[in-house]
TrEMBL record:
One Pfam family hit: PhyH
Keyword Ubl conjugation: no
Protein name: Ectoine hydroxylase-related dioxygenase (Phytanoyl-CoA dioxygenase family)
Keywords: Dioxygenase, Oxidoreductase
Lineage, top ranks: Bacteria, Pseudomonadati, Pseudomonadota, Gammaproteobacteria, Lysobacterales
Cofactor(s) recorded in Swiss-Prot or TrEMBL: Fe(2+)
Biological source species: Rhodanobacter soli
Amino acid sequence: MTIDLARPYLLSERQVADFRRDGFIKLKDVFNADELRHYGEEITRLTIALNTQTLPLEQRSTYDRAFLQVMNLWEESERVREFVFGRRLAGLAAALLQVDGVRLYHDQSLYKEPGGGITPAHADQYYWPVDSDRTITAWVPLQAVPQEMGPLAFFAGSQAVEFGRDLGISDESERAITANMEAQGFRVVDEPFALGEVSFHLGWTFHRAGPNRSARPRSVMTVIYMDRDMKLKAPGNAMQQADWERWCPGAKAGEVIATPKNPLLFERAP
C-alpha cells in the first residue's frame, strides 16, 4: 500500500472565509479508509499501552472520565511520526490560519472509552504559553463518529469571546462557558463525523463533546499547530508553565518557539 501524506487537500476561498468567521471547520474525505487504518492501528495501540490511567470510570474526575490521552506519540513510533509530520494536515493548518508556515506544538491522542463522560466546554489556548491567537488543532477521528459516540461540538464564532478563557476543563467550565454561550446566542454545531472527516479549530474557539454512549471506543488523533513565527509568552497560569517545560523546553519568553520538539512542518514556497 502506498500512502502519500504530502498530497495536498485544496481549500476554497469560501472555506477559508467560513473558518475565519466560525473559528472551526469540518472537512470531508481528508483521509481515506486505508490511511486511517494504517496509522490508526498504531496510534490506538500506543495510546492503550502508554496511558497511565488505572482507575475505573466511576472513580475518576470529570476530566479523567472524558478520555484517555497520550501526548507526543510522534516520539514513540516512526509510523506515528509520519502521520504527525504529514504535509497534508500541516498545509491545511497553514492555509486556515493564513500564515506562511506552521510548527508542531504537540500531538495528542484522545481515546473516549465506552461509557466515557462528556468533554466539558473549554478553549484549548488556556493551556498554552503562546503570544498570539494563530494556533489550530486538527481533530482526526480514526473511525466514523456517530452522535452516540460523542463527536466534537463547537460554539460557532466564539473565538473572540474572552469570558471563560481563564477556565481549564472542569465541571465549572462546562457550566459557566455553556451558560455564557447560550446567553449570547452562539450556535452550537454538534454533528456526527463521517469516516475520513477532520475538523480544525482555533485555540480560542470554545468546544465540547458529549459522552460515549456506544459500546465502542472513540479513537481520535489530534495535532496542534502554531504559526511558524509564534513566540513564547510568560506563562499566565500553572498549566502554561507546565506546558512550557514539557512541550517547549529551552524556549525563551519573547523568542520564537523553535525547539527540537517544535519542528517546522509546513512552509509556503516563496
